[in-house]
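Need a sequence for this fold. Nothing fancy.
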């Protein structure tokens, strides 16, 4: 069980080393999450890293599982972040990684890549933790009619209207700013163009 103490990146690396199979699955909230998740779980037993609450909700409902880590840039106590706050309260054993001291279990004691979105922090964290493979699942870059795997009535954000090229442009700096970025692969979706496709 993970308690409320603050741990550093050194401790996180030790935790990652103890997991056995050195695979991290970074899970977004796109509609491909179910297919991507099953593909990876059929092949290995990864550490599960949720981007905000999206994958935490999926794992708790569809799989009766918990994320190992949740990464987010937003303050859960601010208006509009009620979903994130609820997910965190429902999963007290999940480590949190955030720039807010009040909301993080992990003290990031080294420079980190702030791409301006929570997925960037999650991918940087997985790379910095030393996983041999960092797989991206459920990251559809808000393309197509469905933006998330679940309904979010009333939710609006500029990201929902961004083009695929805008999204790819935002992700390309990961190749220079994440340690061991060559280990990143996308399970499906537009990010295959940036990171390459993961093959089981």
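Here you go.
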């Amino acid at each position: 069980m993970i308690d409320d103490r603050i741990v550093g990146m050194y401790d996180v690396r030790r935790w990652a080393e103890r997991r056995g199979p050195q695979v991290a699955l970074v899970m977004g909230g796109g509609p491909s999450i179910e297919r991507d998740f099953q593909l990876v779980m059929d092949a290995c037993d990864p550490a599960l890293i949720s981007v905000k609450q999206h994958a935490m909700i999926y794992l708790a409902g569809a799989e009766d599982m918990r994320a190992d880590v949740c990464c987010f840039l937003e303050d859960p106590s601010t208006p509009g972040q009620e979903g994130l706050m609820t997910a965190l309260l429902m999963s007290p054993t999940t480590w949190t990684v955030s720039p807010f001291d009040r909301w993080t279990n992990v003290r990031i004691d080294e420079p980190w890549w702030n791409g301006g979105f929570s997925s960037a922090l999650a991918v940087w964290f997985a790379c910095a933790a030393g996983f041999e493979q960092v797989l991206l699942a459920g990251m559809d870059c808000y393309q197509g009619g469905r933006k998330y795997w679940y309904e979010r009535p009333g939710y609006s954000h500029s990201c929902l209207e961004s083009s695929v090229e805008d999204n790819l442009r935002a992700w390309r700096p990961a190749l220079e700013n994440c340690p061991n970025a060559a280990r990143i692969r996308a399970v499906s979706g537009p990010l295959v163009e940036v990171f390459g496709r993961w093959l089981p």
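For context: The beta strands are 7-8, 23-27, 47-51, 69-71, 95-97, 106-107, 133-137, 184-186.
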